[in-house]
Amino acid sequence: MTTLIESEEHKALRSAVSALGARYGRDYLTRTVAAGKPLTELWYEAGKLGYLGVNLPEAYGGGGGGITELAIVLEELGAAGSPLLMLVVSPAICGTVISRFGTEAQKRQWLPKLADGTGLMAFGITEPDAGSNSHRITTTARRDGTDWLLTGRKVFISGVDMADAVLIVGRTEDARTGRLKPCLFIVPTDAPGFHKRPIDMELSAAEKQFELVLDDVRLPADALVGDEEAGLLQLFAGLNPERIMTAAFAVGMGRYALARAVEYARDRTVWKTPIGAHQAIAHPLAQAHIELETARLMMQKAAHLYDAGDDIGAGEAANMAKYAAGEACVRAVDQAVHTLGGNGLTREFGLASLITAARVARIAPVSREMILNYVSHQTLGLPKSY
């Protein structure tokens, strides 16, 4: 049941994660990015404290919670200025899929490591020619005796350099006849035939993006996650948490930018009063706060539906939450930079880099236009144009 009032346990989690984020803050992220390093210290500490695996089963070292709790972790770290993007990928997507559909051996091998941060898994679905159309995925898996041979390309795969394995979305060979049969494979990053190339991004982030080339990567039979015939169910079991967590990422970033702008508007005096006393400054900031809170509420609804097992309801809500949060984040960051004027573009105040980062929530993992397509077709029942 969706509740509008956060439980005491959730409030305590939010407070504890906020305190952890405050110890690191934006300066830590900025220094780490400038050095070209991952956010290792924060990642490991969050793992030791149980935050990375808060959504994973207790039997495998997790916290026994759900996406609701993991979204709180990411949102609060983002609000402190040090979001962990790989939370979206490793525990939310990969951990969820393995928890729900993996074999007992896969769960024992991967979930404890994903929970404590000593292991990390990336996720590979996007391809150069497929875009948002998962029906055009060309990465194929064919049987060779009891093994699988995986061939294809992936792009914009986050954190491959830090990952022990990548959960790859491929298609079985007979999918080429027209029947969509996506399958999920755990592919070690050191497997022969697995090649990665960093993509040069304008985005300033600790997590690098990669192109992958899979050249007849040989995998054992037990690399397949779940049932070969149930690929869509398994795929969307991971994609709905991805959208919810992207919303948490966006809400946290928007909150961070807004807090910096409010602090500045309280203190900055140009005429006789602080600039925050002027409605031309105050009202846009108030509007940004309202939009972020509204997006957060939709995110919480989506998370509760998913954790309750309502995959269909969660799919609709997760898409709407991701859309609302992406829009709210972009507007909050824009208004924050504008509030600071020239200072908003300086390295000292550290807001300008968020202009690029905020757009990620509009573009990835699915564009806002594709979400509008989803809502118009699935929710409103309007005909498709494609």
Describe this structure in words.
The structure is a single chain. The chain is of the alpha+beta class and 386 residues long. The protein is built from 10 helices and 8 strands. It has helices at 8-34, 40-48, 67-79, 86-101, 104-116, 231-267, 279-307, 311-340, 353-363, 368-379, and strands at 121-124, 140-144, 147-158, 165-172, 182-188, 194-198, 209-219, 224-225. Strands 1, 2, 3, 4, 5, 6, 7 and 8 form an 8-stranded mixed beta sheet that branches. Strand 2 and strand 3 (147-158) form a beta hairpin. Helix 6 runs antiparallel to helix 7 and helix 8 packs antiparallel against helix 9. The radius of gyration is 21 Å and the shape is globular. The model has no long low-confidence stretch (mean pLDDT 94).
Short note summarizing the structure:
It is built from ten helices and eight strands.
Topology:
Blueprint: H1 8-34, H2 40-48, H3 67-79, H4 86-101, H5 104-116, E1 121-124, E2 140-144, E3 147-158, E4 165-172, E5 182-188, E6 194-198, E7 209-219, E8 224-225, H6 231-267, H7 279-307, H8 311-340, H9 353-363, H10 368-379
Parallel strand pairs: 1-4, 2-4
Antiparallel strand pairs: 2-3, 3-7, 4-5, 5-8, 6-7
Helix pairs in contact: 1-3, 3-6, 4-5, 4-6, 6-7, 6-8, 7-8, 8-9, 8-10
